[in-house]
Design a protein that fits this description.
The protein has ten helices and 23 strands. The protein binds S-adenosylmethionine. The site of S-adenosylmethionine (SAM) has 19 residues, from helix 6.
Amino acid sequence: MEYMYIAQSAKETAKCKIGKTQNLERRLKEYNAMTGSKNNVYQYLFAGEVKNAGPVEKAVKEKYPHLREEKSREIYFYNAVLFNDYVGFIKAHKLFVKEIIFKSEDKIVKAVKKMPPSLEERGMSKNDVLQKAKKIKNDEFYTRYEDVEKEVLMYDKSIWQDKVIFCNCDDPVDNDEKRTSAFGLYFLRNFEELKVKQLICTHYGGGIDLFNPGGKGYIFTKEGFGEGKQFPPGYTGSFDDPLSLQILREEADIVCTNPPFSKAKEYWKTIIDSGKKFLVISNIANPLTNAYLPYFYANKVWAGYNEVDWYLTPKKELTRAAGHWYTNLPMRDRPKSKNLKILKLKEIPEKYKKHDDNKMLLVDNCYIPGDYKKPFAVSARSILNGLLEKGYILIHDKRYTPYINGKECFARVLVQKT
Ligand SMILES: C[S@@+](CC[C@H](N)C(=O)[O-])C[C@H]1O[C@@H](n2cnc3c(N)ncnc32)[C@H](O)[C@@H]1O
């Protein structure tokens, strides 16, 4: 097993160590042996299993060169915002497997360990189950009510008026609010206020019911004062079940949900091909990912307003993942565009601009060279902050991987002023 960790000593709370190890316990002992003091103990703020720690550590170093202490390659500056960023970045890496430790509000939350499934009687091989369980685990991020509210409130209220809202990725509605998805609950509570015509929520029958078959897919509908559930025979509740697709095609006006991360590509294709309006949560790195970039390039999707960092596990514990809202709904002013620092090229601090081996200009930290006419490379963050609404276009539908002195740097996208 290999792990990436973020550790901190009690006496140096403005810094942290970000490193890799094959033995978390031993590494912590080594650090504590180094300080030799009971008052200055190291603890993990975060640890996650990764498939291969070398590339992840390298990616962290390349992503945060400006936050690394000069003398020691492993020490990074620390504050709560930076910490969120480090964790989000590590978790978004394709080699990331699962969170082991996450420190929140002074208590260490250990990632919930799954019971090994007993399966012979289900006629599945261990491998089938492990694969499925892993996928499901990655999808078990339930949206918090406050995150739905925070995003929806940003849009003009009239968007929802007389519309059929379709929440189609496991958005159950139950008498017990705790077992109702945040999307279902939000639109139910605000049905009158938003003047919604109809709310349709589907419950996916194939999710964490894996080891307890029985959770049947259903369709919940509310229109006016009438509401009810249907359990059509054979209906799975999957977003691509023929019945769900029919609702999408024939009834839905706006689709709003947090789809499973493991099926996000198929999900995006389905909703974008449907031509319907949507507001969904997906990975923060989508504007840098070849599978999604063509949609940004073709202006079929853009970043919503907010990042979504916190989710609930099925046990209602807080867990982190690097998500963001994406939409094709009209936006009002985007507060985050203030994070873009559009300056003349010569005014951008040297450490945030460089040229790669192809002589392509790379700018970091959301600096944008306002007087630069040629293409240049930016990180996903600039796209999420609304650069494409500021007179810039993506010039490729593929991401751009720069090399400096033959060494691969973290991926970006190429943009150009129009
Ligand atoms: C990220 S969670 C979000 C759940 C809920 N929409 C929310 O926002 O809280 C994704 C959910 O999609 C479910 N899911 C997995 N495959 C699905 C499919 N093919 N169709 C619909 N939902 C699916 C998972 O079981 C999981 O509950």
